[in-house]
Structures are given as C-alpha cells and as structure tokens.
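Hi V.,

You were right to ask for the full record rather than a summary. Here it is.
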Amino acid sequence: FYVSEDEATRLWPSAWKPTDIISPLPEVLATTGDEPIYKPVLYSDYVKHFYRKAHDGKLTIDFAKK
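Predicted structure:
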C-alpha cells in the first residue's frame, strides 16, 4: 500500500503479476467480522476492464463487486 500526502491509502498496481488474484484480505475481514464486498478478480482482467473505457469514478472498482 501507498499512503499519499492526503493520507488516503492507494493500491500500488505494479505490485501484482497478470496471473495474480486480487481479493479482500481474509485477515482483515476476520478482525472486522464483515462480509467481503468485492469478489476475487484476476489482476489481468481488472486491468483490461480499467483500460477498456475512460475512467469514470467508481465504475472500475464496481467491476469487482459481488
């Protein structure tokens, strides 16, 4: 993770390989008791979706919603 000057947490995309699965961290969900909002997604599929059309707010992240 990367923390920007405004203290917002950012994902560092170059940390993943195309074959990696990105998903909510089970350890975090276990401590909060929350159900995951997002499904596991193949990183290369997420990137393809991201670059397929112009970035439009949260629509890119909504691609991974359950």
